[in-house]
Amino acid sequence: xxVLLVLLLALVATASRKVLWVIEGTSCHRPWQAALFQGDKxxxxxxxxxxxxxxxxxxxxxxxxxxxxxxxxxxxxSGATTQWRRSAKVFRYPRYDEATKDGDLMLLRFLxxxxxxxxxxxxPLATRCPVAGKTCQIxxxxxxxxxxxxxxxxLRCAKVTxxxxxRCQRVYxxxxxxxxxxxxxxxxxxxxxxxxxxxxxxxxxxLQGVVSWGPGVCGDxxxxxxxxxxxxxxxxxxxxMRRT
Length: 244
Description:
Blueprint: H1 6-13, E1 21-22, E2 26-27, E3 33-38, E4 41-50, E5 53-56, E6 67-70, E7 83-92, E8 106-110, E9 135-140, E10 145-146, E11 156-162, H2 165-172, E12 180-184, E13 200-203, E14 206-213, E15 225-229, H3 234-243
């Protein structure tokens, strides 16, 4: 599950070609899970954070209108519980750094708000920063294998643990900023992967992070996924949604 950086994938794919990791996860449904499309093309995951707002990653930005699907378990099909909404305006975090992925956030405002139901409802934002050792959950339609890519039909969920900042810094050297948080499983292969970008990191029933980046091969117990630390952007998120 994580959109792989093209450069990193190019560097590791040849050396790791004989390795096939199955990313841990189970089929699930999350009423806040969004799927972003441009036409028929799936772009990224996202999280419904208010009736007319979805939060995703800034690197998921594409020019033009983005269609958002909510209330569906599968990636390719829709059902009676599905709601489609079209983006009216897109707000990328103004200080997003494309090279480092710092500030990798983007808000989408709908033309029309969703109808809150059992299958479609917003997820509240976290009020505190993540604590190392906390068990959280990730979800998405990203690849379940790596480095080979296998996309599932159903939404997949997996449990991950917040990694201490010191360990995250050791693993990724100078690539980690104070606006990022790592999460993974030291004894397992639960991870986000290609296709999961923009999706949620949920802790204690609140949105704690957004899938941002990671190593070229997903599911490495020694290299956790990297997520936007949302508590660092609470003011921007609240002000953007309030004034527009």
